[in-house]
Automatic annotation (TrEMBL):
Transmembrane segments: none annotated. Keywords: NADP, Oxidoreductase, Signal. One of its GO terms (molecular function) is oxidoreductase activity. InterPro entries: NAD(P)-bd_dom_sf, SDR_fam, TR. Pfam families: adh_short_C2. It comes from Oryza glumipatula. Gene3D superfamilies: NAD(P)-binding Rossmann-like Domain. The keyword Nucleotide-binding does not apply. This is Uncharacterized protein. Coiled coil: none annotated. Residues 1-29 form the signal peptide.
Amino acid sequence: MRQYTKVIFGKLVLFVILGAINQVTRNLAAEWANDGIRVNCVAPGFIRTPLLSEFVEGNELGRAEFSRVPMGRLGEPEDIASLVAFLSMPASSYITGQVICADGGRCLS
């Protein structure tokens, strides 16, 4: 029972923090838009890093979570870098206040 409580507590804190980040993104975008400042948030999913690779390959929970990624692959750091580069270009000048998921479709499943 105690271990279960820790898992739920950890997720609760994570969800509260993610919600706060999303709302701060929107609020700052609204406040700074007239100054020509755009604010967006990139929400990466499973990105290939040593720690995440160990999590996905090393335990059943990691494999179960990864199996819910419709694209069926880990993201690469370059996937996120490309998105951030796009957001800094003039081509994205009308995008602000958005939380952009780069998660291989995980948020859909």
